[in-house]
Amino acid sequence: MASDSRAAATAPEAKSIGSDDYALSRVPRDKRFGFWSMLLQWLAQSGSISQFTLGATIGVGMTFGDAFLAFTLGAVILEIVIFAIGLAGMREGLATPMLTRWVGFGRNGSALVSFVIAVSLVGWFGVQNTIFGDSVSALVGGPSWMWCVVAGIAITALVIFGFRYMALFAKIVTPLFFAMVAWSVITTLNDHSLGDLISSPPPGETIPLAVAATAIAGGYMTGAIVSPEMTRYNRKGAHVFVQSASSMILSEYIVGMVGVLLGHLVKSSEVSHIVLSTSGAFGVIVVLMSTAKINDWNLYGSSLGVVNFFQVVFGKRLHRGVVTVALGAAGTLLSAVGIMTHFTEFLSLLGVMIPPIGGIIVAEYWVVKRMRRPLDETREAETLPRTSPTWVPMSLAIWLVAFCVGKFYDGGIPALNSLATAFLLYCVLGLLGWVRPYGTSALDDDAHTPAPAAAHVTTPTGAA
């Protein structure tokens, strides 16, 4: 057995479709990325015309000062959640689906987590792809379904090869997007008094602060919960904080507040034409590339969830690259035929189910600390624990209660309500000793070995 293990460790890497990206293992320290590469990945998540539109929508119904307060509230909430969960992902080198095996849910519970995350993210991939196709069709002509197919194939091809190539794409797209947007906005606002825009009353119906904060924080809460998918490639905890905070500052205070000013200027939330009309065909291309850069994370996170789900439920070790092809094809097909837009209500429902996962992770990892001990013992060796809890029934009950609070309680921010409920319940019940695992499952042997070979393309190694 020992000789077999040594042989497996020294065997040449198998040929496969794309990169498995440590879907069922820790990301080794020597395969993680430097500060600037990771920073551009984070900033790329801020580079979206939709964030300008959100800012303009809020600006139509709020004064500049009230909008600033709403964005501050949303940014602080998101940053606390991202840092608390993302730091756990960085320390362990694990994505959210794998992390939950030892942090709150157990092996079988992690399959449920993976299923919810995978369905939600691949669903939003399809929805965003539909929006992408419709936008390109309106701008340059041609049938929407054709552009859906083009975009779906391009994003799938990028995600197949994993984090390394997604990071490279971010290095190209992010500077271009913000340089182009800066030019467009400065050109537009140059002929208007900035002071007058800041002091002007909201041109539309007043939006309450709670509603605005809900739109800001709730809209990205799912992304915050799955932040370990990105932070597991970080080298230092300080990097997680600085990079995520930089993304929040850029997304909320710069992009969002500029959107508020544009909303006051045109007295409408329809401000995307300002950027597109002043930047020409090049601007259109950059905007479309930035949209694709954001949507690639939906497909990437979904692929990680499916890999964990299949290993737990069916005992099958799927290659992440192969899973990406299947999910990308399904999402692209459904978006091309126009079906995905009919599922947005269902996807929004799943969106309320995901925040409690984050509350339980934070409570177990940073407060209760009853189940994470095996991770502590194996972290230095960069291996996984040989066993994990099988079920944690109380966690599933907390998850259900928190979901009901987020879904049916009308006050506050639904996503935050469900997350806070899960966090508080788990802390109280966990410290009282009521959150107990039942059963012990041996770690699947193939979690320690390379992913199964697929065909033709050599798996790229992680970037240093």
Automatic annotation (TrEMBL):
Keyword Protease: no
Chain segments annotated as transmembrane: 39-62, 68-90, 111-132, 144-161, 168-186, 206-226, 238-262, 274-292, 321-340, 346-368, 389-409, 415-435
CDD domains: SLC-NCS1sbd_CobB-like
An MF annotation (GO) of this entry: cytosine transmembrane transporter activity
Cellular component terms per the entry's GO annotation: plasma membrane
Locations listed in the record: Membrane
Keywords noted in UniProt: Membrane, Transmembrane, Transmembrane helix
Domain of life, per lineage: Bacteria
Gene3D superfamilies to which the protein is assigned, alphabetical: Hydantoin permease (1.10.4160.10)
Keyword Chloroplast (UniProt): no
Major location (coarse): membrane
Pfam families reported in the protein's UniProt record: Transp_cyt_pur
Topology relative to the membrane: Multi-pass membrane protein
Protein family according to the UniProt entry: Belongs to the purine-cytosine permease (2.A.39) family.
Name listed for the protein in its UniProt record: Cytosine permease
Lineage of the species this protein comes from: Bacteria, Bacillati, Actinomycetota, Actinomycetes, Kitasatosporales
